[in-house]
Amino acid sequence: MSFGKCRDDLDFTLLFGEEGRQTAGSLSDVRPPSSLLPPLPPVAEQQVHPSHLSENNQDVAYYHGAFHCPSIQITSIAPNNHVEAGGAWGGVSDTFGGRDQLYLPFDPSYRDPALCPSPCSSLSSRSWVSDLSSCESSSHVYDDVDGDLRDAARLALGPPLVSPLGSLGSLGGGVAAFGVELWQQKYQHPSPQQSPSHSPRTSVTEESWLSRRPTSRPSSRPTSPCGKRRHSSADPSLRSSSPHLTMSPIPACSPRGCVADDPGPALVSAYQDLDVPLKTRRTWGGQLGFLNAPTDEGLETFLNVPEEEEQATAAELFLQVPSHFSWSKPKPGNPPLFRPSSPPPLDWPLPNQYDQCELKLEVQPRSFHRAHYETEGSRGSIKALTGGHPLIKLSGYAEQPVRLLLFIGTADERNLRPHSFYQVHRVTGKTVSTVCQERILECTKVLEILLVPENNMCASIDCAGILKLRNADIELKKGETDVGRKNTRVKVVFRVAVPQPDGHMLWLQTASVPVECSQRSGQELPHVERFRPSSASMDGGEEMILTGSNMSAQSTVMFVEKGPDGRSLWEAEARVLPQRCSTSSIVLEIPPYNKATSRPVQVQFYVSNGKKRRSLAQSFTLVPVVKQECWEQHSISDSLPPQSAPTPHHSSSVPYQTLSTVPPQSQTSWDLCPPLNTSTAFSTSADSQLGHTMSIKQEPEERLNLGSLGLQEITLDDGKKPYQLR
DNA sequence: GTAGGAAAATTGGCCAATGCT
DNA sequence: CTAGCATTGGCCAATTTTCCT
């Protein structure tokens, strides 16, 4: 089906797999006439990723595909001139004949594969934004040609071309070139006599870009797209369910990004004319070098990439339909098996274990890692809590090397998916021992690491850093649903494809603990909200749990005793148990008090994330009694500074009483706190100044000073008459 | 190449002033 | 003329991004 004519000498056609039930309803509109197609192989029912179904078609989940990977191919009008595209994940090229192809004049100047390495295979962090931009810029053409073809554009813009074992050709660049040209015709009304060899890249000049962009960027810093920007979720109509399959009516990229799309020599030169930091430019060299340099021997074997495919010639003219539409239909309870040609999309949930096979992150990354911007140098690889690097291991399979994928995912409450504002970044250097390669899958940068039996199917992740993309660059993408601001936590996601005897691949996935990637959060002062116990033996060694915020395994906890004049009389650092720490809690061993005394000693402790980053000091009591039966629970609210907190009583034989400032039914409790066997629960009047729950030990005959707690009234938990404060 | 620190720039919330109905 | 509501712009703290060392 021919749907448009963008240039006098360029007739293009989008062809899809043969008819059948369609996924989102739109593809049916672009089905080719059956008469133009050769006989079809037996139709296989295939499942579609739910995220790619329109809201109104959630019940239509299957389509019939003639090929494992329905594809769009751009070729020249004259079939004699076209260059066959490489396959994708399964040697699909073999199956291509004269159908499902779109012919374009193969003009070297239009896109010279040798000079224009794929933007999607870029090593450059900056080029990543460019990659997105190229995808974006290419998409709008479908907006203009036919609204129903928007979905077709999504397909084309989905995953880059991937070799059977993951090697990438270039999709984005070719699409970009194609799309920008059409975009120009729509928005810039170029002369019909424009040379077909005219570079679409250069045709989008910085000036034209600025004139089209809602707000130009006068400096290197991003500016608000329309003055004072409101929350980007303000217009839900512009948003799609998947930020990675989105389109923009205009190239939503900066001039730098657009230029950087396609780093041919001329463009690299032009790029250098722009105000681009040297650090950023330098990555181009790395990128080109990466593309041209021989790969590591082991990985080369592993990837098994045909040389001609590596050259990315025909591949650059080949548009791959996302694999979402083409994998085997899983049934309930079925294993996560996929055809080699149809890996699951990156936002597809996968188990970490099936049968004997398990993918496990043996060593977790530490809870924060400052990501670097494109304008910065690398900030190194992700570190582990213990100081080394994360360690991933595949157990239950060691027959042959398998490919491990690593990407940066989200850490919010929603489904794990590639993070829009962070990308994995390959770290190189003398200290890096793990061989890896960067790829682009579904517009997400992915590291490929080989797990080999010789290494017990383990890999130390010392080659993965985290790149931060500028919020403005990402949020300007039409359809982007996430906001970058305060969206600074990520997870490191690992995937592996385990070959099965029947030829399928068993896909497993595991993700790390959340990793905070912003500098600021790392700098913020730690804050202790609760701790227990509130007293301990002077002998030390007792376990203590702090909860609050801005904590980490790298935090230190200092215990100090100060004299009346404020001088430090004693100081000791607690031993933090890093494996049991998180951003909101620290587990430590209380240090021994080395002074001989028979009386309790009031000391203080604070959490430190470095100099100038200390929490407020909290009071703590060291008692010369070894036996410590009772656990106590304290809450520290802002309205109740530590010095005014209730002084705990220390008796080994007193019953508990629990004071709560919230109704009992909503009273929070510590899951680690031992049950209170003799407790009498109290609730307070609603105007209590306290905001947290308290458990207070009380001597049986001792008056509880409620006034010091900011309480006016307490009632027994069983509803009996209240105790009035006098 | 890494990393820490901090300055500069941007963003978003709040609120008063202003304009319109 | 007044009340109610929406819009606009300034202020400021929080956050992001860039730069320096």
Automatic annotation (TrEMBL):
Any one GO MF annotation of this record: DNA-binding transcription factor activity, RNA polymerase II-specific
Subcellular location, record wording: Cytoplasm; Nucleus
InterPro entries, A to Z: Ig-like_fold (IPR013783), Ig_E-set (IPR014756), IPT_dom (IPR002909), NFAT (IPR008366), p53-like_TF_DNA-bd_sf (IPR008967), RHD_dimer (IPR032397), RHD_DNA_bind_dom (IPR011539), RHD_DNA_bind_dom_sf (IPR037059)
Residue intervals of the RHD domain: 341-522
Compositionally biased tracts (Polar residues): 649-674
Region called Disordered, residue ranges: 187-249, 636-674
Sequence ranges of Low complexity compositional bias: 188-200, 211-225
Domain of life: Eukaryota
Entry keyword set: Cytoplasm, DNA-binding, Nucleus, Phosphoprotein, Transcription, Transcription regulation
Any single biological process term in GO: calcineurin-NFAT signaling cascade
PANTHER family xref list: NFAT (PTHR12533), NUCLEAR FACTOR OF ACTIVATED T-CELLS, CYTOPLASMIC 3 (PTHR12533:SF6)
Name of the protein in question: Nuclear factor of activated T-cells, cytoplasmic 3-like
Organism per entry: Gouania willdenowi (Blunt-snouted clingfish)
